[in-house]
């Protein structure tokens, strides 16, 4: 809620989008979902990835082309986008734009699209709390183009 009055329009849009998602993924759940076959998509900017590191085992797709790459009916889809029931976890920097992106993917029929609550920032903080030696981000595949 806005400090100066009623919620902003984007606050309302975000609340509606969150309400329409399957449960948002918590940082400690991400590895298990990956192991079970979920597609984890990192939509952070190249600048954010260069500054903060890659998300291991994530597929990098710019937010500007996300829908075209993941729509199973799109001529521009990636090979991994062949099953609309496959769980997809969208990751942004702090867990805001990923909510809207996941909701957009659901509108394309990806019924199991959701996002990482708190984004990469929450994931790396969780990893550092668990074991700082394991917090070094790994490589990610870039499917931006």
Please summarize what this structure is.
With 145 residues, the protein is α/β, with parallel strands linked by helices. The chain contains six helices and five strands; from the N terminus they run H-H-E-H-E-H-E-H-E-H-E. It has a five-stranded parallel sheet with strand order 4-3-1-2-5.
Polypeptide structure, described:
The structure is a single chain. With 145 residues, the chain is of the alpha/beta class. Helix content is 36%, strand content 10%. It contains six helices and five strands. The protein has helices at residues 9-19, 30-35, 46-52, 66-70, 97-107, 119-130; strands spanning 39-42, 59-60, 88-91, 113-115, 141-142. The protein has a five-stranded parallel β-sheet with strand order 4-3-1-2-5. Strand 3, helix 5 and strand 4 (113-115) form a beta-alpha-beta unit. The chain is globular. 28% of the residues are buried. The model is unreliable at 131-139 (pLDDT under 50).
Structural class: alpha/beta
Order of helices and strands: HHEHEHEHEHE
Principal-axes geometry comes out as globular
The overall pLDDT average reads 89
Q: How much strand content do the residues show? A: 5-15%
Radius of gyration: 15 Å
Question: How is the largest sheet built, in terms of strand order?
Answer: 4-3-1-2-5
Q: Give the distance, in angstroms, between the N- and C-terminal Cα atoms.
A: 37 Å
């Amino acid at each position: 809620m806005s400090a100066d009055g009623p919620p902003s329009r984007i606050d309302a849009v975000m609340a509606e989008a969150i309400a329409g998602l399957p449960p948002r993924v918590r940082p400690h759940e991400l590895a298990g979902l990956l192991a079970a076959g979920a597609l984890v998509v990192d939509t952070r900017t190249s600048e954010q990835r260069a500054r903060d590191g890659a998300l291991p085992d994530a597929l990098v797709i710019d937010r500007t082309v996300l829908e075209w790459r993941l729509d199973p009916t799109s001529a521009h889809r990636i090979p991994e986008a062949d099953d609309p029931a496959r769980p997809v976890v969208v990751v942004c920097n702090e867990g805001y734009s990923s909510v809207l992106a996941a909701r957009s993917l659901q509108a394309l029929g990806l019924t199991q699209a959701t996002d990482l609550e708190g984004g990469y920032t929450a994931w790396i903080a969780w990893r550092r709390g668990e074991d700082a030696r394991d917090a070094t981000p790994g490589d990610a595949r870039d499917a931006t183009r």
